[in-house]
Amino acid sequence: MLYLQRQDYHKILAHCRKQLPQEACGLLAGRKDGENCQVEMVYLLTNMDHSEEHFSMDPREQFAALKNMRERNMELLGNFHSHPISQASPSMEDRRLAFDRGLRYLIASLSEKEPVLKVFMWQEMEMKEETLLIV
Ligand SMILES: [Zn+2]
How far does the centroid of ligand 1 lie from the alpha carbon of residue 108, in Å? Predict the structure, then answer.
């Protein structure tokens, strides 16, 4: 289960909409309690690819975010990116790039009228959807 605060949900969505038609990306930090993850901080990053179909995070921004997490005693929980015109499920490329099995991967789809956010995590050989709770 991934808990996301409503203000962070809106922060992610606003960032994704602002980057349209390109994909947006960022990092999720917070605390882990067993299987439960509580997002306490969202970092909005630059998609260096400036692409509508894929993303790569700015390494300098990533480094700064990780440093900031350490200072706040937070853990990296995962990342997020948007799908401007496709559904909220991991693409072949997303699966290939999701190499950290301990992380959560949030995808925000803007292809429908209402945004759809889903979280995925590796379980054995598959990326399985995990429950996302907006609190
Ligand atoms: Zn994707």
Answer: 9
